[in-house]
Every structure is written in structure tokens, then in C-alpha cells.
Design brief:
Layout lengths: L2 H13 L13 H6 L3 H8 L1 H23 L22
Length: 91
């Protein structure tokens, strides 16, 4: 897959305004983690396995959290089979 280099070039241009980077910036796991973008590095390493997790599931999760925070949707916590709830511990 030839999109890795293009993605890094785009990311380098995008982040050059916000992060001080040397002119010979090489994306490494450490530099991506420091910038809070380790998921981008992992996505480029294993795109076939991780694309759905990062590009579909995570935005959906953030969207649902936003709905709950703004009071547009509420979710109930399911009860355990014995009726004690999820926070109860066996005695």
C-alpha cells in the first residue's frame, strides 16, 4: 500500500504549525506518542487491521459520549443477573 508516505507528508505539513519539528522530521513511535498521535503511527503500520477501530468505532464512541454529555441521549447501566448491579462485589 503506497499511502503511508503521502500520509506522513500531509501530517508533517499539518503539524509543522503547531509542533516545533526539525526540517528532517522522521515520524517515529516516540515522536507520534509525544504529539498525542500514536494512533496515526499504528494505523500506518497496520492499516488493514486497525482502520475500522480508529476511523469508524472511535468517532462513533466520541459522538455518543457527546450526546450523553449534552443530555440528548441517556444510557442505562444493565443490572447483573442477581439484581445487585455492576458495582456490587461478591461477599
Amino acid at each position: 500500500m503506497g499511502t503511508g508516505v503521502e500520509l506522513w507528508d500531509w501530517l508533517k505539513r499539518r503539524l509543522s504549525r503547531t509542533i516545533a519539528t526539525p526540517s528532517t522530521w522522521a515520524p517515529t513511535a516516540w515522536s507520534m506518542k509525544r504529539a498525542g498521535l500514536q494512533w496515526v503511527h499504528r494505523l500506518c503500520q497496520e492499516p488493514r487491521r486497525l482502520w475500522k477501530r480508529y476511523l469508524i468505532n472511535n468517532p462513533e464512541f466520541v459522538f455518543r459520549i457527546g450526546l450523553q454529555l449534552f443530555g440528548l441521549r441517556s444510557y442505562t447501566i444493565p443490572q447483573a443477573r442477581d439484581g445487585r448491579g455492576l458495582t456490587s462485589r461478591a461477599a
